[in-house]
Amino acid sequence: MIVVLKQNVAQEQVENLKNWIHSLGIETHVSVGKIHTIIGLVGDTSQVDMDLVGSLDIVESVKRIQEPFKNANSKFHGAPLVVDVGGVKIGGGHFQIIAGPCSVESEEQVCYVAECVKKSGAGLLRGGAFKPRTSPYAFQGLKGEGITLLQEAKIKTGLPIVSEIMNISHLEMFEPVDVIQVGARNMQNFDLLRELGKVRKPILLKRGLANTIDEWLMSAEYIMAGGNENVILCERGIRTFETRTRNTLDLSVIPVLKKLTHLPIIVDPSHALGYAHMVKPMAMAATAAGADGLMIEVHNEPAKALCDGAQSLTPQAFDDVAKAVFQIRPFACKFNENE
Questions:
Q1: For the whole model, what pTM was predicted?
Q2: Measuring CA to CA, which residue among 211, 231, 219, 214 is closest to residue 192?
Q3: DSSP character for 198?
Q4: For labelling, which of 36, 110, 116, 201 has a CA lying 20 to 30 Å from the CA of 176?
Q5: DSSP letters along 22-46, please?
């Protein structure tokens, strides 16, 4: 249930209404917009008399909603969320490319790639320090040393860093990381999500390999219910019967999510498809569909990469993709605004 308040309502009146709602055992989520203040009721609202609430002087309207995700629901918010990462903004009309190597391999590698992607227009640097791999014999990442090397790249370029966490016990090590990524395999690691709800930094939440949109949003809800509302959703492909690509990139989630949630949605074509030559057309398509950003893997020597070299772009190829994407973006904005 959401309660839309009239304009210029006194804060004391708002607090009185919230206290009454809390007395019924129901939590509230308040969103203050330019025109209206919206109070979202989270919990069993069956006992709330809609007519009574609607008759209050400060209330403009009352509506019930059916979706199980409350904090992640656009009906609770007056505008799309803008996630601010040290001055780099994602969502609400702000578009960013997150680029970098699948895994951090050396200081020379990550710093060189960081400098290249920044010149091409990337706003954030991605790099894996901890790598979840299907095979236990594959390269698992440099772990703490990898985060230290990402810090060095940040110092040299000024790019905020994004890296994937795999275990609650690693949280302290991620203090220098600007955006904590939750990978597809951990999308329903609810204990981890609860802990990330206590963290006061943005969380990039990837969609699971075989998860529905509602399940994905409910995972975001776990984080937001803990108090951390800075969640970025990332579509990275889902598993289907198709074998010609690693996964099937579901770009239909973009318009669906734009209706359901206020959270920014970015797309990772590198992991979705598994082949470098497919990244450019799908990055362009995702941009045209209205994505708030992209995550693209870039390696200085993909043939020698310790992880996912087949899907990684060279810096030169990334520059070509970025130019194409930035040409499309203004037209995508106009089209999606008209929609």
A1: 0.85
A2: 219
A3: T
A4: 116
A5: HHTT-EEEEEE-SS-EEEEEES--T
